[in-house]
Amino acid sequence: MSGRVLVVDDDETVRDVVRRYLERDGHEVVVAGDGESALQLVAKQVPDLVVLDLMLPGIDGLEVCRRLRQRLSVPIVMLTALGEEEDRVVGLQLGADDYVTKPFSPRELALRVGSVLRRAKGVSAGPAMGELLDGGLRLDTVARSASLNGAPLALTTREFDLLVFFMVNPGEAFSRPQLLERVWGWDFGDQSTVTVHVRRLREKIEEDPANPKRIVTVWGVGYRFDGTR
């Protein structure tokens, strides 16, 4: 699954290495060295995916992410340093779909990019499930669209995937590591990624996010989708 990828990093060496690996996988790659240039490039032509470093001169990566999410659903893969856990969580809250921690393997990043693009374009290893319904909540897994009480829902790629997983496995409790493995495809990773995405989903699909009825917390385990029964 190839696409047009915008790589935003102030380190020229990182940009060049990432470009080579992504082009090797068949992607068209454009690069930017700062946040302002990145936003200008997106305004001219929206990419299929953005690889975004959080530590940028001028407009930082978090602000770039926030501005993109105000008007676009383009998938975003963040690049973060080991000590930037708080920024990583904020980035996920702003709507980033995935992250890779520096120092990183360029091959791993290329695989993450391919995985996110496949999901964003509705390509998966399994069969399409069609329509999923829970009261006023409707998901079309073929068109990858969602609505609540007839109003469109703006979901990121990972939010959509997580909600689909919950809805096809109602009544079953899953731990955060299980969700990381089965939704993100990660054997290990920061479990706060799951926590942040669940919180964002609740804000979008629950009548009262502080007292959720659909995605409930199972203390000592993780989360379960109860629906509107």
From TrEMBL:
**What would be one Pfam family of this protein?**
Trans_reg_C
Biological processes annotated in GO:
regulation of DNA-templated transcription
Which stretches hold the DNA-binding feature?
A: 129-227
**What are the GO cellular component annotations?**
cytosol; protein-DNA complex
Q: Which residues are recorded with the post-translational modification 4-aspartylphosphate?
A: 53
> Which residue range or ranges hold the Response regulatory domain?
4-117
Q: Give one GO term, molecular function aspect.
A: transcription cis-regulatory region binding
What top-level branch of life does the organism fall under?
Bacteria
Q: Which SUPFAM superfamilies would you find in this protein's record?
A: CheY-like
All copies of the OmpR/PhoB-type domain together span: 129-227
Q: Which PANTHER family match?
A: DNA-BINDING DUAL TRANSCRIPTIONAL REGULATOR OMPR, REGULATOR OF RPOS
Question: What is the protein name for this chain?
Answer: DNA-binding response OmpR family regulator
Organism annotation = Kutzneria buriramensis
What lineage, starting at the top, does this entry show?
Bacteria, Bacillati, Actinomycetota, Actinomycetes, Pseudonocardiales
